[in-house]
């Protein structure tokens, strides 16, 4: 499902940057700045699916955490229904957290090991919706368990008594407890057995329709994006380098980095070939021009001089590349 260009976005990221500074020593007052997110612009519509794809270190998790108001941006804005999330405080921020929830990558680390499942599921309802009736809370918890494919008998268990897949289902149920409008899922299947991953992605698609939610799914794997559909945003070292319908990016990527990701997923495109590329770490030394230049087989002199803007290559497909080549020609 794509964003209706005539409808106002449910959530909008405008020129968002998140920089982290780290001192290199006691006498080093300047230190080193890591641009985890660097000038990203995105939109998420009602009942929309957006997959954010990139290698580890691309900035996709920091982007998700910033949208979820768990990390403060260095600059830029996150707008929810036109209101700047970065300026929200108190009750207004609690209202936003009710509407925008996050599922984390590690289902064990994200659950309190000392709380039983009933407490884990009911706490968001108490804190974010104000529900206090114990009977209604338990009924709602049972309904959440049924939504994610679990039975009532797990309510009195602790997280360590559940399997990894069951814990992730609890994490999803907890995120649904406040009836959110946006669900941010950060690598939700990467720590699960391969046999379970497709079931979980199908679960997300079903929950999106049943709960009338939009989903922003963070993943390193284009195969996951293919299952989810919608649109895909490709990130590299904090920058958005490609954005468009998922099917279009999989069939004809317009950025060399997307080609590289396809080559890493031979099931997605058997004839994908990125050629010899340098390791990701070398790109961190780039201070001018395109950050992907050290790994790019299409790089020319212009790539060392200017950072390519994200521009339309087709009506809905955008890429940041000076030397884009239409592979269909």
Walk me through this protein's architecture.
With 329 residues, this protein is α/β, with parallel strands linked by helices. The protein has a single domain (11-319), classed as Rossmann fold (3-Layer(aba) Sandwich). Helices cover 31% and strands 21% of the residues. It contains 10 helices and 12 strands. The chain has helices spanning 60-67, 90-99, 117-129, 134-147, 164-176, 194-210, 222-228, 246-251, 256-263, 301-305, and strands at residues 11-22, 32-44, 49-53, 75-80, 83-84, 100-103, 182-186, 214-219, 231-236, 239-245, 311-312, 318-319. The chain has an 8-stranded mixed β-sheet with strand order 6-7-8-3-9-10-12-11, with helices on both faces. A 4-stranded antiparallel β-sheet has the order 2-1-4-5, covered by helices on one side. The longest helix is centred in the middle third of the chain and has 17 residues, at 194-210. The protein starts with 10 loop residues before the first strand and ends in a 10-residue tail after the last strand.
**CATH secondary-structure class:** Alpha Beta
CATH architecture tag: 3-Layer(aba) Sandwich
Please report which band the strand proportion falls in: under 5%, 5-15%, 15-25%, 25-35%, 35-45% or over 45%.
15-25%
Could you say what the CATH topology is called? Rossmann fold
The number of helices is 10
How many domains?
A: 1
Mean model confidence by pLDDT: 88
Spatially, the strands of the biggest sheet line up as 6-7-8-3-9-10-12-11
What Rg do the Cα atoms give? 21 Å
Give the H and E element order.
Answer: EEEHEEHEHHHEHEHEEHHHEE
